[in-house]
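User: Let's play a game. I give you a shape written as tokens, and you guess the letters that built it. Ready? Here's round one.
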């Protein structure tokens, strides 16, 4: 079984490459690489991908919370093999959402509820939908991208 691991395609590495590329051009403005691109001609900022845990931790029709670095991610599985990921912070006052009941993500603090497929507000004081996070299943693991 693949252990939990964090794969961080770091913006730091990309920024370092961009910095080196900028230094390499030193003084010769026309022949050096564009400082906004890496040596591989990639954009300077790339998304970070983090393996958050096994897909089997998310029940079909339910949800589960994971950590992605400093961020809590709430993952739902509305139907088998279809995953959605959201920033777990409730948009009302920032409490962490906790679970899914009848297709709705629940916030325990003041009763906000969100649709577990879209993250849209269903009820309660929340002013807007939960923040969506890109998610993919790779093998038996879930990966999120920022
Ligand atoms: S913090 Fe979630 S409903 Fe208030």
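Assistant: Ready! My guess for every position:
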């Amino acid at each position: 079984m693949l252990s939990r691991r964090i794969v961080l395609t770091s913006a730091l590495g990309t920024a370092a490459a961009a910095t080196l590329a900028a230094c390499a051009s030193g003084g010769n403005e026309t022949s050096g690489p564009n400082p906004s691109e890496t040596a591989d001609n990639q954009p300077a900022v790339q998304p970070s991908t983090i393996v958050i845990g096994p897909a089997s931790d998310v029940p079909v029709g339910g949800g589960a919370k994971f950590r992605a670095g400093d961020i809590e991610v709430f993952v739902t599985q509305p139907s088998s093999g279809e995953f959605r990921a959201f920033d777990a912070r409730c948009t009302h006052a920032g409490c962490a959402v906790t679970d899914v009941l009848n297709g709705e993500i629940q916030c325990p603090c003041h009763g906000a509820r969100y649709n577990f497929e879209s993250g849209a507000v269903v009820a309660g004081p929340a002013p807007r939908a939960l923040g969506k996070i890109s998610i993919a299943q790779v093998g038996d693991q879930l990966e999120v991208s920022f």
